[in-house]
Design a protein that fits this description.
The complex is a heterotrimer of chains A (379), B (257) and C (323).
Chain A: H1 7-24, H2 28-34, H3 41-48, H4 66-79, H5 81-101, H6 104-115, E1 121-124, E2 140-144, E3 147-158, E4 165-171, E5 181-187, E6 193-198, E7 209-220, E8 224-225, H7 231-267, E9 269-270, E10 273-274, H8 279-308, H9 313-338, H10 348-359, H11 366-378
Parallel strand pairs in A: 1-4
Antiparallel strand pairs in A: 2-3, 3-7, 4-5, 5-8, 6-7, 9-10
Chain B: E1 3-6, E2 9-11, E3 34-36, H1 38-54, E4 58-64, H2 68-77, E5 82-87, H3 96-107, E6 114-118, H4 129-137, E7 141-150, E8 154-160, E9 165-172, E10 175-179, H5 191-198, E11 203-205, E12 219-225, E13 234-236, H6 240-253
Parallel strand pairs in B: 1-4, 1-6, 4-5, 5-11, 6-10, 7-10
Antiparallel strand pairs in B: 2-3, 7-8, 8-9
Chain C: E1 4-7, E2 10-11, E3 14-15, H1 17-33, E4 37-43, H2 47-53, E5 59-64, H3 73-87, E6 91-95, H4 98-111, E7 115-125, E8 128-135, E9 140-146, E10 152-156, E11 171-174, E12 185-192, E13 205-209, H5 219-228, E14 232-235, H6 237-241, E15 262-266, H7 272-275, E16 283-288, E17 301-304, H8 307-322
Parallel strand pairs in C: 1-4, 1-6, 4-5, 5-11, 6-10, 7-10, 13-14, 13-15, 15-16, 16-17
Antiparallel strand pairs in C: 2-3, 7-8, 8-9
Helix pairs in contact in C: 3-4
The chains are: A alpha+beta (379), B alpha/beta (257), C alpha/beta (323).
């Protein structure tokens, strides 16, 4: 048992923090206001290796462990969770399934550019009638010669409007329910693939969320990821890893809240003393810091199990559940510590308040995480 | 071009409260973060730029305590090829000159065309180690360097003088350059470079390799203290609106706006 | 008692202010130690300089050579080391300037004389030589004791010893030491930094910004404010390093010196490298979140608060007043 970070992990933490402090955090409010990521930030992250953190070096990746990845996502999200979510989806939900299930040709074709951030990836499973209920996916893919013909509409796709490739889930056999779900790599510009409306979100506004529309979209047969009917398994396994990423984002937001509230409580004076001298404020700070530390340890534990090649579905769900709820509480308390100012956009906690909520909702709501955890206990 | 870069790990004090410790001669370090000295980051980047241009190797050297290895490892990830930590814990109290003497014993064994240092360390602010070192090694130096172009056996440099004036000089190589901030844009370490650097050995040199008794300590800190207040601004207090009102009125009365 | 030496600094045909500050410091030391102050003047055709310094020192030692016309750390070091060896001064004072920084540590190492740089104050008594230096970016001062030595080298921070009229009658002595041709270092020329469209040294109102401005986008707000009060925007070194403003807007020891009627320091901590260039302003106002920021030691009026809250409010108040 050892709580010390390894040398490379400490260096990644330092680099990610340095980058986030200089390149991301100063422009986070602008990204939020304009609902656009800071210009060039993904390219820079790509050049530094943050967009292919766990990919092998042969594909241009940095070949790091999941613990390192969780540390990086936390630090980047501490700067701006919108950048964190973009990086996390790209790494966990796009690079990872191609690495795990892709053919040699697919890996060689897509991973090097993804790893360097030259291309951006999106993951599209959710539909109006199918979120966590993946068996109810309505989008269909029908084999026609050398192509699958895809029809359907996907929603809530992170980076969907900007993505160069989309990991798409469609049913190749509706009667088979979850067993008929298949996964495809769809390139931007494929005939019949259209980007629909951009969602106007409460938080994480820097990260664009889109509807994707497939109308007789002809996807080459060789872009099937894994085999027909493998989709459900791919989705579940991919989302386990994704949950570690979401948990790390939540920890990053929570950490930013702890720091902002602590800083403000020392600066703000009322009744002739800084408000941090009041026990009411101290208790809020103590609770926030404790919960965020606990969330971090759960997150790193799940990442650690993944690195060991052990089962980590339950731990990933626990980390995601606890970290996202802790982040929301930390954000609420951080606004409280700021008083009326915390409700104003001049203060970053206002953004954290809105950003944090999404971590409880996407890649499985808190309720779904509890189902996963309970199922694992009762098995 | 073989280049030696001298670096220092320093407490980050710009935005931190700095308190004198119980000895009265040092500061409380527990709550401070430490990192590469600001101008040293520019010195390193300058070395890496030259290496990218014309090959060669970069050796980073630091006189520091064990945690300096963390800083040296980041320096490796940002482009240095090898790193040497000279164990500060072996050499008792240090000042700028003693540090330079220690650096000299290690650097004189290396092959180099150029030495880069930062122009000053933000902790003790000596502006001294680089020039001391050049003199001890018997090579020319330039301080406050804000631009360097390497020619055949010599470098054209610009130094920053006061008042925004620059001094343009030619200096023969090998030479030592103590560089100003702003001379370049220091890079971030890439993750692939971090992976490689994390596994690298950092050589350690200590009292077994350097004759301690030959080192001279010129100066010792007798006391650290908070600077006496000679003048203190009249502080306006209140909400931003209130203080702005008072300030605007004052400026108006004085005819300044 | 051996003498005090002080190095005359000049550039482009003019004596620099720091020279007179060194003489003030040197006279004070000489008086306390009951000894004499010698100004060491390296230059070419230096008659005028010697005249200007006549009342400032007991003796002016002149080394006249064309090679001393412009500062060259190599030839200056070579000559000064000879002077120190033959004169055996107890203390040699040099300005903590771009010249002094190159010269003093090299001389110290060459002659094995203990040296200290960037000293704010200096005292010499039976306990030996002690100096006051700043550490940790101006947040603390240190009293530093030298090892015992017959001779010491010290560089003095500019602005610490105000220039004063002297009442001495210096004996002017020409040295027959000649400059050696520098082997390694060749002075080529002085280059003026590129001049932009704004000359901050001519403005009556200067709004200075420091690290506290946080991001480039916020510069627009400051520009607007400065424009409203008829001022220009200047800055600290980190803002130039980040390329948010050009070099000719930098105020401080490696930038310009400004003496406007009004200087408003926004998010500037107050490191001496900056304040050296603005403390001569008639009225200084500082806005900074950190109540311990050294800038409040330079300012006449201060506001301890977030500049992003104060600036908009101040803008509104001034607009009101103007109507």
């Amino acid at each position: 048992m050892d709580f010390d970070l390894k040398e490379h992990q400490q260096m990644i933490k330092e680099t990610a923090r340095d980058f986030a402090e200089k390149e991301i955090r100063p422009v986070a409010a602008k990204a939020d206001e304009e609902a656009e990521l800071p210009e060039g930030v993904l390219g820079k992250l790509g050049e530094l290796g943050f967009m292919g953190m766990m990919l092998p070096e042969e594909y241009g990746g940095a070949e790091f462990d999941c613990v390192s990845y969780a540390i990086a996502v936390e630090e980047i999200s501490r700067g701006d969770a919108s950048v964190g979510i973009t990086m996390s989806v790209h790494n966990s939900l796009v690079c990872q399934p191609i690495l795990d299930y892709g053919s040699d040709e697919q890996k060689k074709k897509y991973l090097p550019d993804l790893a360097q951030g030259k291309t951006l990836g999106a993951f599209s499973l959710t539909e109006p009638e199918a979120g966590s209920d993946a068996g109810n996916v309505q989008t269909t893919a029908v084999l026609d010669g050398d192509h699958y013909v895809v029809n359907g509409t996907k929603i809530f796709v992170t980076s969907g409007g900007k993505a160069d490739i989309v990991i798409l889930f469609a049913s190749t056999d509706k009667a088979a329910k979850t067993k008929g779900l298949s996964t495809f790599i769809v390139e931007k510009g494929t005939e019949g693939f259209k980007v629909g409306k951009k969602e106007d979100k409460m938080g994480m506004r820097g990260s664009g969320t889109y509807e994707l529309v497939f109308e007789n979209c002809r996807v080459p047969k060789e872009n099937l990821l894994g085999g027909e009917g493998d989709g459900f398994r791919i989705a579940l396994k991919t989302l386990d890893g994704g949950r570690v990423g979401v948990a790390a984002q939540a920890v990053g937001i929570g950490q930013a809240c702890v720091e902002a509230a602590t800083r403000y409580s020392k600066e703000r004076k009322q009744f002739g003393k800084p408000i941090c001298a009041f026990q009411a404020i101290q208790w809020l700070l103590a609770d926030m810091a404790t919960e965020i530390d606990a969330a971090r340890f759960l997150t790193l534990k799940a990442a650690f199990l993944k690195d060991k090649g052990l089962r980590y579905s339950k731990e990933a769900a626990q980390a995601k559940l606890f970290a996202s709820e802790a982040a929301v509480r930390a954000a609420i308390n951080a606004v409280q510590v700021h008083g009326g100012y915390g409700y104003m956009k001049e203060y970053e906690v206002e953004r954290h308040f809105r950003d944090s909520k999404l971590t409880e909702l996407y890649e499985g709501t808190s309720e779904v995480q509890r189902m996963v955890i309970a199922a694992s206990l009762l098995k | 071009m073989n280049i030696v870069v001298c670096i220092k790990r320093v407490p980050q004090t710009a935005d931190a409260q700095v308190r004198v410790d119980s000895s009265g001669k040092d500061i409380e370090k527990e709550r401070l973060t430490f990192d590469l000295n600001e101008s040293d980051a520019y010195a390193l980047e300058q070395a890496v730029l030259f290496k990218e241009q014309s090959g060669g190797t970069i050796t980073a050297v630091s006189v520091g305590h064990p945690d300096t290895e963390d800083t040296l490892r980041m320096v490796l990830a940002k482009g240095a090829d090898t790193a040497i930590r000279i164990k500060a814990e072996d050499f008792d109290e240090l000042d700028g000159y003693k540090t330079a003497q220690i650096l000299k014993t290690v650097i004189e064994k290396a092959e180099f065309d150029m030495i880069f240092t930062g122009c000053m360390a933000t902790d003790d602010g000596y502006y001294q180690v680089g020039v001391n070192l050049a003199q001890l090694l018997g090579i020319p130096h330039a301080t406050l360097v804000s631009s360097i172009e390497i020619g055949d056996g010599a470098a054209r440099i610009k130094r920053e003088l006061e008042g925004g004036l620059l001094e343009h000089d030619e200096i023969s190589l090998p030479a030592l350059f103590s560089v100003q901030t702003g001379i370049n844009v220091p890079r971030y370490a890439s993750l692939i470079a971090i992976r490689k650097a994390a596994k690298k050995e950092i050589a350690a040199v200590g009292q077994d390799d350097i004759d301690k008794d030959a080192l001279v300590l010129n100066t010792q800190i007798e006391e650290l203290f908070v600077p006496p207040v000679t003048k203190r601004a009249e502080i306006f207090s209140g909400t931003p609106e209130e203080v702005s009102g008072k300030l605007a009125d004052m400026l108006n009365e004085k005819g300044l706006i | 008692m051996a003498e005090i030496l002080a190095l005359v600094e000049h550039r482009q045909g003019s004596l620099r202010d720091v020279t007179f500050e060194l003489m003030s410091c040197g006279r004070k030391l000489a008086e306390n130690l009951d000894t004499r102050l010698t100004a060491v003047l390296l230059g070419h055709n230096t008659g005028e300089f010697a005249d200007d310094l006549k009342t400032q020192a007991h003796r002016i030692l002149v080394l006249d050579d064309e090679r001393f016309k412009d500062f060259n750390s190599e030839s200056y070091q070579q000559a000064l080391s000879q002077v120190i060896k033959s004169e055996n001064p107890v203390i040699t004072l040099i300005g903590h300037t771009a010249f002094g920084m190159s010269l003093c540590p090299a001389l110290g190492a060459q002659l094995d004389i203990p040296s200290s740089t960037d000293c704010l104050d200096i005292e010499m008594n039976d306990g030996g030589l002690k100096v006051i230096r700043q550490m940790y970016e101006g947040k603390l001062d240190a009293r530093v004791r030298f090892r015992e030595s017959p001779s010491y080298l010290v560089t003095i921070r500019t602005g610490c010893f105000p220039a004063e009229d002297g009442n001495l009658q210096a004996e002017i002595v020409s040295s027959d030491l000649k400059a050696a041709e520098p082997q390694h270092l060749k002075f080529i020329e002085y280059l003026e930094a590129a001049v932009g469209d704004v000359d901050i040294t001519k403005a009556d109102v200067v709004v200075g910004v420091g690290r506290g401005i946080k991001e480039k986008e916020n510069m627009a707000m400051v520009e607007e404010f400065a424009g409203m009060i008829g001022g220009v925007v200047a800055c600290t070194r980190p803002i130039v390093d980040a390329e948010w403003l050009p070099k000719d807007r930098q105020v401080g020891s490696s930038g310009k010196t400004v003496k406007p009627k009004l200087y408003i320091a926004l998010g500037i901590s107050g490191a001496f490298q900056h304040t050296a260039g603005m403390k001569g302003s008639d009225t200084i106002i500082a806005v900074n979140k950190d109540p311990d920021a050294p800038i409040f030691g330079e300012a006449d009026y201060g506001i301890v608060d977030d500049l992003f809250k104060v600036l908009p409010a101040l803008r509104d108040k001034i607009t009101e007043l103007k109507q």
